[in-house]
Specification:
Blueprint: H1 13-23, E1 31-36, H2 41-54, E2 58-62, H3 72-76, H4 79-84, H5 88-91, E3 93-97, H6 100-109, E4 113-117, E5 126-128, E6 140-144, H7 153-157, E7 161-164, H8 176-197
Parallel strand pairs: 1-2, 1-6, 2-3, 4-6, 4-7, 5-7
Helix pairs in contact: 2-8
Bound molecules: S-adenosylmethionine (SAM).
């Protein structure tokens, strides 16, 4: 069957279940991507797709315009979101918040620390993506800002650090979807390597045999 760009090839129920079981050990526990006030549904879909594909755990969306349904079940059934995320919204949990403070309150209540991302120097601690250690906090939320305005001052204020992808061109920033892919790749890679070696935080519970950090490719996959 031909595969159309943007559409996932149809899989049988059994192979879907097998895949869902196989990916479980690779998912980065307690890693949430937060999108703050995104304006474009396509970007929301791309971030959800990146979260799912790279193995972060959840997506939180600060949605002050109230453009999204409150309930994940309703989001999963929203055709535009399902289409732009190529169905990743069905597999990755998404939760919406009315405001930046509501989202921080919820994260902090659950012992999550936050890092924001920006092409600019923001706040007290600034980190170049590949120089950062993203395994230090047991529970980590990584924030991405609005397409035009970037991350808010309030989010910077309530975060521990600001992470930048180094850029070498004439333009000011990368787009939201692209930057979420690059940042989450590095963060997930580090946290998956950690999980493969240790069962607990602070390098406790060392495994005698590290778990694999790369999934075997299915036969016949190109
Ligand atoms: C299109 S950018 C926003 C540009 C905006 N004018 C600004 O001042 O940030 C949308 C989001 O992508 C992320 N982003 C873009 N370029 C980045 C970079 N070089 N490093 C880290 N994050 C970046 C940030 O989360 C940013 O808020």
């Amino acid at each position: 069957m031909p595969v159309v760009e943007g559409e996932e090839p149809k899989k049988s129920k059994r192979s879907v279940r097998e895949r869902a079981d196989a990916i479980k050990p690779f998912v980065c526990k307690n890693l949430i991507a937060v999108i703050e006030d995104p304006a474009d549904l396509k970007n929301i879909g791309t971030v959800i797709r990146n979260v799912n594909a790279l193995g972060a755990e959840k997506v939180y969306i600060v949605d002050p315009r109230k453009g999204l349904p409150d309930d994940w079940q309703d989001m999963r059934e929203k055709p535009s979101l399902s289409k732009t995320s190529v169905s990743a919204v069905k597999w990755s949990f998404v939760k919406r918040f009315d405001s930046t403070d509501d989202c921080f309150d919820h994260l902090e209540k659950n012992n999550f620390r936050s890092m924001v991302t920006s092409p600019h120097v923001k706040g007290q601690v600034n980190i170049i993506l590949h120089e950062g250690d993203y395994t230090e906090y047991a529970k980590l939320a990584v924030w991405f800002g609005n397409e035009k305005r970037g991350i808010s001052d309030r989010a910077v204020e309530r975060s521990d650090a600001c992470v930048s992808i180094p850029m070498f061109g004439m333009i000011e920033s990368l787009n939201l979807g692209t930057s979420s892919g690059i940042v989450l790749y590095e963060v997930c890679k580090q946290r998956r390597e950690y999980q493969s070696k240790y069962r607990k935080r602070d390098k406790r519970g060392k495994r005698t045999m590290p778990l694999p950090t790369v999934m075997g490719r299915e036969e016949g996959e190109t």
